[in-house]
Amino acid sequence: MSDEVSVGDVRFEHHREGFGIGEARPRISWKVSADQSGWLQRAYELRLVDPENGSAWSSGRIESEHAVLVPWPAPPLASRQKRAVSVRVWGMRAGAPSEWSDPALVEAALLERSDWTAEFITPDRDEDRSADRPPWLFRRDFHLAQDIESARLYITAHGVYEAEINGARVGDHVLAPGWTSYRHRLRYQAFDVTSLLHAGANCIGAIVGDGWFRGQLGYRNIRNVYGDRLALLAQLEIRYADGGTQRVVTDDLWRAEHGPIRSSGIYAGEAYDARKERPGWSSPGHADGDWAGVLTLARDAHQLVAPAGPPVRHINNVAPVKIHRSPSGKTIVDFGQNLVGRLRITLNGAVGTTVTLRHAEVLQDGEVYTRPLRAAAATDRYTLRGGGREEWEPRFTYHGFRYVEVDGWPGQLSAENLVARVCHTDMERTGWFSCSDPDLSQLHENVVWSMRGNFFDIPTDCPQRDERLGWTGDLQVFAPTASYLYDCAGMLTSWLADLAVEQLADGVPPFYVPYVGLNEARPVAAWGDAAVIVPWVLFQRFADRGLLAAQYPSMKAWVDTVAGIAGDGCLWQGEALQLGDWLDPSAPGDGPWAAATDPYLVANAYFAHSASLLASAAEILGHDQDAEKYGRLAAWLRRAWNTAYATEDGLLASDTQTAYALALQFGLLAGAGQLDAARQRLRELVAKSGFRIATGFVGTPIICDALTAADAVDTAYRLLFQREPPSWLYPVTQGATTVWERWDSLMPDGRVNPAEMTSFNHYALGAVADWLHRTVAGLAPAAPGYRRISISPRPGGGLTYASARHETPYGTAEVRWVRNGGRLDLDILVPAGTTAEVRLPGDPADLIEVGSGKHRFSCAYPAPAEDGQNTLTTQRDR
Ligand code: BGC
Predict the structure, then answer these.
(1) pTM here?
(2) Catalytic hit among 13, 405, 741, 814
């Protein structure tokens, strides 16, 4: 045995916990810790034990260096089946295997439609369809004959739900079942509820609210997108100690009634009247004689699916930093951080008193400023039952806010009375960055907070106004940053499955996923390209070839669609609206698409890029004919683009930073002459703009990479460290704690940008963080899943140190550089099972290859004062 090597963190698919998963052959991953440096895996063995009867199954020794998403080696799991899986590995050098890892448990959920005997039930009562409606309580008493061995609850809703058994909450999910394209894919959840049940009288209940299913949705205030009846589907499966089983399912024996939640909407907020509580409603024996009956709904065609990623949960609390009175006499609570979630309040007062909580991201003239929320009321109301301490948190809403205006509070409001409960998809944090400049560190922190606020079951554009939609373009540009900061693979796998099912027969994905029906899907570049680029990015970062294979038809459909429009000339042209370089600073406030760069120049650049990524995907998946076909297409498209938009000497039809950045990053130029001219022109344009941002959603994520490729990393740093608007750091100087939608969402005069679309929490322009990780700190994947890592820091901007740490699929990788006068010290950590290619900043052409473990390098490098801050100061002083 080689005792210095150990295996841990055994996982299935992208699940942190293997309970209740929907895959019959879940792929398996693990991580290796090795004391010796340069450890590489030669082989592995998987042992699967059936915990029911102890029978074991081994894969035998499998020669492979892969430790990420390796195939399930055994017969597929049947519904409800469990296995305990252990892994051991052999290294390249030692002959003996490692010890076995601790076993990781996997349990399949309900994998067949026929497993479901429950029916959807809905209250037997008519409702007003035009407003946010009160949620329904559903309940049913039942009797268990003997002590139970185990129990599972499989449950979902048309609406959002919380379940209770015998008065106790089931699980800790927020706004379950989450939001998917309900018509095609409705998620259900599995819970182990063994400890909540006992022999004798029991009760199961669930509250179901409007949520995304039938609540107000989208910026045109539509409702009932998926239907106008709330419904519940629940299947409780009990196993007795003697092996007998019993099921309690939603059927016509359930009862339904309204409870204390008087209305509830994701945008609107929630109103709760504690006087209307029904104590004991989910416990046995509650008097439900006057409750409504239920109807069973014919099972519709949608497919029930188990989650591919983690649920939304309450993640942490933020306490108020200040409570003050506004000029108009209102009480305003400041949480010091623009965040997403909701309040929990604790109070004491007279029966019937109503407290109103209005949420906002910003203040103007000292008052909460809610205009940017548009039709989202973002207001919660609590009416007291009186007679003692009361505690409340809304259930079926969430808000994006930093400030709350509190009205009607009984007595003196103090900081102990409220806490902000931050909620988002419960992804594992995997990426960190730090550096010597506090403003840049704050920018990075703001990017993290904007990701947290907008990875709310689906990747949304913003978390506060009447929108919160899965805009494809926003994620397309942010996906690399997201994949570094958090393990978002499971969540985005689900979102991409929705994108694919919603891609119309003509191959065009909706502008946002899930689609709510606001505008016809039209082919729009950079947004539609999410179909190709997001799966590709996830493949690079998480090595999920299966995801690439699953998305391949969707990727191909998008490229084929655009190819059809472009026709033989290989040029996409027309009158139809493109979103283009959305929101570049020159675009008018009410016309964010009217940016400086020709939108069809952008569209054709993306077309060539997507065709080329599709060709690479085809090659990886072994679709050889496609690889050749799309490779050829991409070459044609590059040529067509070049002919249409570039002069022979490398000048572009749009003389903009975005045009040059696209040309350089997507490889659209030919020959050294064109390349040199384009590089030079890009440098000139950035200087001409006074090192201020002149790019929008398309150009901003790539401008620093393009400058780096143009041998102008110093120019990229000057852009990065610009503090005058428009710039990345201007919001930081204004006290921003998240990334803004507009460069000047808050204008220099302290007023909120008057444009109707002004959010303070949009991650798209934060996509520059990926450059901070890959180039400033210098940590990037060089092969899918970081099995090969590129370490190539490019210090600059006067920074004296920078570091990046990433929990790669193979383990922790870390880079940290420090400048000491005329030297630079570089410390790196390379995870076991991987290799790294290191390029020292003094000599980036020289490649040093190292294996796993800790390594230190030192090289001569000019002092920081020579590359940045002093120049910037001069620039600012001028
Ligand atoms: C969203 C954007 C989105 C855009 C496209 C906006 O309303 O907030 O982030 O990409 O629309 O039209």
Answers:
(1) 0.96
(2) 741
